[in-house]
Amino acid sequence: MARLGEPWDFLVVGGGATGLGTAVEAASRGYRTLLVEAHDFAKGTSSRSTKLIHGGVRYLQQGNISLVLEALHERGLLLRNAPHLVHNLSFVVPAYDWWEGPFYGAGLKLYDMLAGRMGLGPSRFLSRDETLEIIPTLEPEGLRGGVIYHDGQFDDARLAITLLRTLLDLDGVAINYLPVVSLLKQGGLVRGAVVRDAETGAEHEIHAKVVVNATGVFSDGLRRLDEPGCEPILSPSQGVHLVLDRSFQPGESAILVPHTDDGRVLFAVPWHGRVILGTTDTPVSGISPEPRALPEEIEFLLTHVARYLTRDPSPEDVLSCFAGLRPLVRHGEAGRTAALSRDHTLLISPSGLVTITGGKWTTYRKMGEDTVTQAAVLAGLPEFPSGTADLRLHGWSAEVEPTADWAVYGSDSAALTKLSEERPEWKEPIHPRLPYRACEVVWATRHEMARTVEDVLARRTRALLLDARASVEAAPAVARLLAGELGRDAAWEAGQVEAYGAVARGYWL
Ligand SMILES: Cc1cc2nc3c(=O)[nH]c(=O)nc-3n(C[C@H](O)[C@H](O)[C@H](O)COP(=O)(O)OP(=O)(O)OC[C@H]3O[C@@H](n4cnc5c(N)ncnc54)[C@H](O)[C@@H]3O)c2cc1C
Q1: How far does the centroid of ligand 1 lie from the alpha carbon of residue 465, in Å?
Q2: Measured between alpha carbons, how far is residue 81 from residues 240, 370, 410 in Å?
Q3: Euclidean distance between the first and the last CA atom of the chain, given in angstroms as a whole number
Q4: 123 alpha carbon – ligand 1 mean position (Å)
């Protein structure tokens, strides 16, 4: 906490994709940058996405060409700047009606064209046999063929941690468990914030030339600290995912169903040895750091995916169920959230609070670039050009196969291997059904600012999403390792195990 009292150029509030992207952008341009996060980095929407770095086939259907172009460009940059975290994934669009092959095939050719030189491989038609060869568990009855195309896939929380490490490499500072509780004003202008240490309750004043509100679905709350009674700009929408065993969809390709009953896109995507099904689009009025799936969202996903797979998944097959809230921006009175804007919105209040929201994970860098460019002018800071389009993220490595063990650590995986050799027990798996070892818990505490069992099991590793029950069984061992690293006692360990169990129980059906 020693550095909190320093004079900062940028105070970024919120440690999700948007805040981390903005902070990396600011620090890389040489501004003194501090980021504060109320809970843990990526605790909000940024650990709950479909895990695609994509232009968005769905936005193409809606005719939002500029958004698709921008996202495809960013997809290309991310594959170049974080090859250890983002990889090329093929998607199969199955065709059951005569018109679906030509119709989706033409749309995906346009998608290829928009990607241009940044394309990941051309789309092409598949015969019925080829389609079944690529997705052997696809429902064969009535199948005519399909179209295959390419997009990017990633691990969202790991990209957030990588951005955190990149920020630290650039001499920026980031602190988790430090919510902003009020804003500081001078002459009517926002000039900093008061933060409260969630572990000790101590409050601190932070002074900065400009404050950026990057709090996702909580943005209206922070705006109200600046202007009580201001009109909300967000209409949050919930999206749910179910995680199944890989046997439901073996093979390396994902399935995309472009049009479900409620007009959504349905994905079944292989990820870390499991299959993720998603997603829904349910307008919500209340916002919570731990949103919960509604029974009808679960029912919707299970029923729809059953139409496309030979084996129908039941609630007992669900290894984990997670929900996230989209920070969708209202434009007048739009009715359904599926039609609200996925573009980002930058808003500057009369007192100079800069709010950046909307957008998607794929476009986090561009959101950061736009924000810092505007905010620097607003704060009268010297102007420097952006260099993040060519900035390699922490751990950059072209040698690591993105699907290999420890690939997400990139060039750090050598140091992790060394750590695993320090003590025989650190090589042990934390649970027989989870692909993680004890040394990763130690690593997360020493190098990735993990403070709790949940930080480790939900976001440094993805145990909570891969198998919620197994993660609860692993919690006592993880708590012991953490307590050893953080110098905590047995009562803390017990409290952590209990708190984690309470959160994780919300992830199984
Ligand atoms: C279901 C779903 C699927 C998606 N799939 C994709 C996808 O496949 N690809 C893609 O590109 N995009 C996807 N998105 C969109 C993407 O996930 C979001 O646009 C992005 O994660 C939003 O990041 P954020 O930083 O704005 O918000 P968040 O990640 O929610 O971060 C905001 C942070 O602010 C913190 N905070 C709040 N109040 C305070 C305070 N007072 N002080 C300090 N900190 C505070 C919160 O704790 C939180 O961590 C998906 C979204 C959803 C919901």
Answers
A1: 17
A2: 29, 19, 12
A3: 40
A4: 30
